[in-house]
Amino acid sequence: MRSRFLLRLLQRSLANRFSRWLIALLAVALGASLVSASLTLATGMRAKMQQALRTYGANLLVVPAAAPTDPGGAALFATMPEEVLGKLNALRRTIPLLGYAPLLYTVAEIGSHRVAVVGTWPDAMRRVNPWWRVEGGWIQDRVEEAEAIIGASVAERLGLGVSAPLTLSVRGRSRTFRVVGIVKTGGSEDEQVVVSLRAAQELTDRRGQLNLIQASALVGDGRVEDVAQALEAGLPGVAVRTQLRLVLAEERILGRLSLLLGLLAGIVLIASALSVGAAMASSVLERRREIGLMKALGASRLRVGAVFLAEAGAIGLAGGLLGGVTGVGLAQGIAHSVFGTGVPPTVLPPLTAALVGAGVAGLASLIPVRRATAIQPGIVLRGD
Amino acid sequence: MHEIIRLQSLSKVFPGPVVALDRVSLAIPQGEWMAVMGASGSGKSTLLNLLGCLDRPTEGQILMGGTSIGELTEAQLTGFRRETVGLIFQQFHLVPYLSAVENVMLAQYFHSLADEAEASEALARVGLADRLRHRPAQLSGGEQQRVCIARALVNQPKILLADEPTGNLDEANERVVMDIFQQLHDDGHTIVMVTHDPHVGMLADRRIELEHGRLVTIHTHDLVAAAPRTADQS
After folding, report:
1. Is B190 inside a domain boundary?
2. Contact residues on chain B for A13, CB-CB shorter than 8 A
3. Cα-flanking dihedrals φ and ψ of residue A283, to 5°?
């Protein structure tokens, strides 16, 4: 009953001074929108990146122990036995691996040109790199030894198209392939020739050998490093590296963006606190007699303070909710323009922003409310 | 009748110094209607503020129902005021954005629990049953004063303190309001009313006159007596 009348009192009082509170409410909404946008981006984009990592490609590299991770590095040609693949497959029972593709690298000559050649399981390569755009088709299967996919740059440089013959020579050993597809990724693949693992092993005379394995693990909420450690423990003689450059770059952008938004939110929240504080100070000044009356009617300092803090809290909450919802929209806009994707909206950021709004408004009102509670009814109610 | 208020050599000095009340001693029996009269600046409102626990005396003692209110802490004083006193103001002091019934409920809210039915009944008692939802600006001065009276009565205080309750009213409204006070008096309420209007003062059981903060005359109906001089006053 008591709280119902307090709500009625708040409703009447705020409606009576709505125009005066509007600026403060909008100021809180602005600060809250930045808080909400920042939180939505931080949580939503991280989840999105995890998802992207799971969907779009390998996030782990299994390499011979002490080998560098850079596919262009000279020491890349360190090899490990193909049996690792069997052990890796066995580990799938305990480690959430979505897929993996073995790779064997070499440099081959095509006439006077030198190109990087990678031998792999075509079907597995396709699964861990689903975004590859291949004009033409893929190599039929893992045992196919006469088909090749060439990178777009190689095709352009050598004037090769689909169905063209291609002869690769490595240290005097030559094999002729038929170009079945041209791959364009915008990355290093454009400079490579892809053949089956078996064909590459034959060409380089390294039967049963691999340079590395690209693996895609389902990370979920956990850390990819934990999966890497688990793999290393189960695969003696190999090292497992995380391939997080892209994600880290995006995380860096996200981190800076969140920091920027957070700083901006902080500054705007300080400004909105000043606005609420000023509105409350003016309200207390205008309502001196009303406060005096409340005290004359027997209201304790605490009850008078509660009435005014509830008003500030209501303004803060309303502004916070408005800003919280706006912030989710703002986050969508930022995510689209910076990352080219949307973020899944969640309830927590706008709710947090609303609470932050209410808290800021309440804190900003403490000094004027303290003044209100110190008003002496005998003085302010004295007849004119 | 046993006394409900006793003032013992009560003084109030404001910074300046301005002596607003000077060693006033007085006893008010329960159920009495007492009018406090005097010229402007004689200390009437100061006396009422002290009785209403809105201010503290500089010297002397106020005993209300046996409690020495000068010894109470601020919180205790607020609680005592809430339980003991009903205040009626010349300026009405109604909250402009609340309806008549909500203004009465405000007093209930700060006392204990807001009860709309009870607040409506208090307004009906002062003839405002059809004005419950009206805001102060939609009410006449007399009606506003009656809302103020209903607000003062709703928590059933032991003492009603009225500061020039008819000061802002026309003659017709003054009559209506004074009829209500007469009724309250007949019902046994203790009333202390500050007024400068002799006609209003004549309705009281007793009139006291203040002059420069000193109690100079006590009128009991047609009997006029000099104020009993205490040892402090002599």
Report:
1. yes
2. 97
3. -65, -45
pLDDT one-digit tens code per residue, A221-270: 556 677 788 888 888 888 887 766 555 666 677 777 778 888 888 898 89
Ordered by start, the domain boundaries in chain A are 2-52+249-380, 59-242
pTM above 0.90, yes or no: no
What's residue B41's pLDDT? Answer: 87
Kindly tell me if the per-residue pLDDT of B93 is higher than 60.
yes
Q: How many residues does chain B have?
A: 234
Please compute, for residue B3, the number of CA atoms within 13 A of its CA located in the half-sphere on the CB side. Answer: 12
Interface contact B97, partner A, CB < 8 A: yes
Question: How many domains does chain B divide into?
Answer: 1
Which chain A residues are within 8 Å of B105, Cβ to Cβ?
5
**Residue A296 with chain B: CB contacts under 8 Å:** 52, 54, 81, 87, 93
Rounded Cα distance, A78 and A68, in Å? 9
pLDDT tens, per residue, chain A with 384 residues: 567 899 999 999 999 988 888 999 999 999 999 999 988 888 877 776 665 555 545 678 888 886 555 544 444 568 899 999 998 888 888 887 778 899 999 999 998 889 999 999 998 888 777 777 889 999 988 888 899 999 999 999 999 999 999 999 998 889 999 999 999 877 788 899 999 999 999 999 999 999 999 887 766 555 667 778 888 888 888 888 776 655 566 667 777 777 888 888 889 889 999 999 999 999 999 999 999 999 999 999 999 999 999 999 999 999 999 999 999 999 999 888 877 677 888 899 999 999 999 999 999 999 999 999 999 888 888 754
Structural domain containing residue B53? 3-93+156-226
Closest CA to B94 of B82, B108, B104: B104
Taking the CA of residue B73 as centre, how many other CA atoms within 13 Å lie in the half-sphere pointing to its CB? Answer: 4
Interface residues of A toward B, Cβ cutoff 8 Å, are 1-2, 4-6, 8-9, 12-13, 15-16, 289-290, 292-301, 303, 376-378, 381-384
Distance in angstroms (rounded) separating the CA atoms of residues A11 and B214: 47
What confidence tens digit (pLDDT) does each residue in A319-330 have?
999 999 999 999
Residue B141 domain-assigned (yes or no) = no
Closest CA to B5 of B45, B48, B56, B46: B48
- A chain contacts of residue B114, beta-carbon cutoff 8 Å: 1-2, 4-5
In-domain check, residue B54: yes
Tokens for B9, please give them.
């050599």
Mean local confidence (pLDDT), B197-210: 90
Nearest to B91 among A2, A294, A383 (CB): A383
In a domain, B107, yes or no: no
- What is the ipTM, given to two decimal places? 0.88
Question: Chains A, B: CB contacts under 8 A, how many?
Answer: 82
Q: What is the CATH number of the domain that holds B207?
A: 3.40.50.300
Would an 8 Å CB–CB cutoff place B6 in contact with chain A? no
Radius of gyration of chain B (CA): 17
